[in-house]
Write a structure and sequence with these properties.
two-stranded parallel ribbon, 4 helices, about 130 residues, two-stranded antiparallel ribbon, single chain
Length: about 130
């Protein structure tokens, strides 16, 4: 099961795309930092500093710390949101069905990328929740 969401760029305001891009860059930087810690050679000294406290990680504490980082990477490595440009087929499908304005009229086979884009491309702002 994946929690990843895909937004179609043509249906997302550019300022939202900018925020998402900034979040993706921030996330990538943090993941790179975690990977560098997880991949640190054994002879590299690992130290946690917080305010005036300093803790050197060695022995079993270091092993547990690295294991925790590896678990975090497994859970968080992939950013859960992507923004993609719409495919040619998606655009053509939207144009072909624009008059009916029914989400159930998706012109694509179910469980295909185009069908997912069709559903993701709908704007529900005017519908009551």
């Amino acid at each position: 099961m994946t929690d990843e969401k895909t937004l179609i760029a043509s249906n997302v305001p550019s300022d939202v795309v900018g925020v998402i891009t900034a979040c993706q860059e921030w996330h990538a930087h943090r993941i790179a930092q975690l990977k560098s810690l997880a991949d640190a050679p054994e002879h590299t000294q690992l130290v946690i500093e917080c305010g005036d406290k300093r803790v050197e990680l060695d022995g079993e504490v270091r092993v547990g710390f690295i294991a925790g980082i590896q678990c975090a990477l497994e859970l968080l490595e992939k950013f859960p949101l992507t923004v993609t440009k719409p495919s040619k087929e998606f655009i053509e499908g939207c144009e072909a069905w624009i008059d009916t304005l029914e989400i159930g009229d998706c012109p694509y086979a179910s469980n295909t990328e185009e069908a997912a884009q069709w559903v993701a491309g709908w704007n529900f702002e005017n519908e009551e929740v």
